[in-house]
């Protein structure tokens, strides 16, 4: 997607370790005084005066005046001098922020809260932002000492961030500001860790008009994004592979795709956003049934474009009396460490599977092929099933190597095909760049269909079929 002279070429979720804590604490708040007590203090705060002057001002009897003054003296809020004049004590003077202001009495109260803090910056964030599943994202590693001392660190940062936590509405509703001063922490009685969970941080990767990476935005949830960017950089460095343009160029030749190659500068081999704008304009003018895509197919804009083409096909299948129960809708995943590292992928996968049938009719049979070393690669299979267990009935394992593992294909037989090349250029880009196209060209759909089926039905070696079977079967044979 291209906006504001920036091209969004990838979206990745990073999973930052966090913990949920139960915190018991006491806090100091300000509250108003009873009517007579408040206004007597306000009157004397302006100037010392006699009991009679107080009685005259409020229209009180001698008994009422004596009871009121005696109560204030007993509370240590007022003194009665030998000359019969009433004055405020230092204690009650502190009730007044300024002359004429409403007096506020500091009150210590008990409360508790369940709060989440990440374990890198110890920023407090909303419980509503948490999903407990450690999947569809790149996990970030933090210092072991932060985990070991998390309760002490949470206590420290709870006290430091109390005002912000209160302003964000994370504390119980009864802790409210009643006067001119906000409530403040008096003491933290206990902090108990409840569980560890991930804070999901979604990052958009962008390039400018020259194809150079744009600095990523800070995270609003965190008090120190610089620390997180460093953790991300470390993780990306460990995951990124070598430049694969030669392999992708070879795959383009195999597919017969000359158009996508035109998006790369012939001298620098860099993707050029301006070329893509021209390509999109040309495709719209020609109505060729081809649409160039930048970014993962499961990004919001790309998935919308995909569904725009898929929708009419499914409407026709619903109307037709033809049995499509054996029509394969195949999704071949690439061997790219950043593929499917987003909740958007999970929602797109769910969408594809849910649309496979109506109440009365099967429209297609979805099969998702995920890469493994071979049929004995139980470790990879277990990792995949942990990610997408609820979709296991539609997931099979496929031996790595389809178009060198750099190409993703989604194909509905005889109808449409999506091809996404996962371009890696580590000297320029921090993560892979998914780029490709959707096409409804029948000849191309047929060609890709044969290319996929030849590989899926092939053998990597004797007694080692590329199609390793359904994922739970591979895992259960371990």
Describe the structure in your own words.
- The chain has 478 residues and is α+β, with helices and mostly antiparallel strands.
- The protein folds into 3 domains: 2-27 and 107-239, no CATH class; 33-103, Winged helix-like DNA-binding domain superfamily/Winged helix DNA-binding domain (Arc Repressor Mutant, subunit A), CATH 1.10.10.10; 245-476, Endonuclease, Chain A (2-Layer Sandwich), CATH 3.30.870.
- The chain contains 15 helices and 19 strands.
- An 8-stranded mixed sheet has the order 10-16-15-14-11-12-13-19, sandwiched between helices. Strands 1, 2, 6, 7, 8 and 9 form a 6-stranded mixed sheet that branches. Strands 3-5-4 form a 3-stranded antiparallel sheet.
- β17 and β18 (464-465) form a beta hairpin.
- α2 packs across α3.
- The longest helix is centred in the middle third of the chain and has 20 residues, at 300-319.
């Amino acid at each position: 997607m291209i906006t504001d002279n920036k091209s969004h070429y990838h979206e990745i979720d990073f999973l930052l370790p966090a913990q949920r804590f139960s915190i018991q604490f006491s806090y100091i708040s300000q509250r108003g005084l009873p009517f007579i007590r408040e206004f007597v203090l306000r009157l004397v705060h302006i100037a010392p005066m006699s009991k009679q002057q107080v009685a005259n001002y409020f229209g009180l009897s001698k008994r009422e005046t004596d009871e009121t003054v005696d109560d204030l003296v007993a509370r240590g809020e007022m003194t009665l001098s030998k000359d019969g004049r009433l004055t405020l004590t230092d204690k009650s003077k502190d009730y007044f922020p300024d002359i004429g202001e409403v007096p506020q009495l500091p009150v210590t109260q008990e409360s508790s809260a369940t709060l989440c803090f990440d374990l890198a910056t110890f920023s407090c964030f909303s419980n509503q932002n948490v999903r407990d599943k450690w999947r569809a994202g790149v996990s970030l590693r933090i210092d072991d000492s932060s985990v070991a001392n998390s309760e002490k660190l949470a206590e420290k940062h709870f006290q430091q961030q109390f005002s912000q936590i209160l302003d964000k509405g994370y504390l119980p509703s009864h802790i409210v500001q009643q006067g001119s001063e906000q409530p403040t922490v008096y003491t933290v009685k206990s902090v108990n860790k409840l569980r560890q969970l991930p804070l999901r941080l979604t990052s958009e990767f962008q390039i400018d008009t020259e194809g150079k990476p744009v600095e990523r935005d800070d995270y609003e949830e965190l008090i120190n994004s610089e620390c997180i960017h460093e953790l991300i950089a470390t993780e990306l460095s460990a995951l990124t592979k070598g430049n694969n343009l030669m392999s992708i160029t070879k795959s383009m030749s195999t597919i017969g795709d000359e158009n996508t190659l035109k998006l790369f500068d012939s001298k620098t081999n860099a993707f050029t956003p301006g070329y893509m704008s021209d390509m999109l304009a040309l495709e719209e003018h020609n109505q060729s049934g081809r649409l160039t895509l930048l970014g993962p197919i499961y990004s919001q804009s790309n998935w919308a474009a995909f569904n725009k083409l898929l929708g009419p096909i499914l409407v026709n299948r619903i109307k037709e009396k033809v049995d499509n129960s054996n029509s394969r809708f195949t999704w071949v995943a690439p061997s790219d460490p950043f593929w499917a590292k987003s909740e958007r992928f999970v929602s797109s996968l769910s969408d594809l599977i849910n649309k496979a049938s109506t109440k009365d009719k099967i429209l297609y049979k979805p099969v998702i092929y995920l890469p493994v070393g071979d049929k004995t690669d139980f470790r990879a299979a277990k990792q995949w099933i942990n990610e997408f267990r609820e979709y296991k009935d539609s997931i099979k394992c496929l031996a790595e190597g389809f178009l060198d593992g750099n190409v993703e294909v989604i194909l509905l037989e005889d109808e449409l095909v999506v091809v996404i090349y996962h371009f890696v250029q580590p000297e320029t880009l921090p993560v892979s760049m998914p780029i490709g196209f959707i096409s409804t060209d029948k000849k191309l759909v047929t060609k890709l269909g044969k290319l996929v089926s030849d590989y899926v039905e092939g053998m990597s070696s004797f007694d080692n079929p590329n199609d390793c079977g359904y994922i739970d079967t591979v895992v259960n044979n371990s």
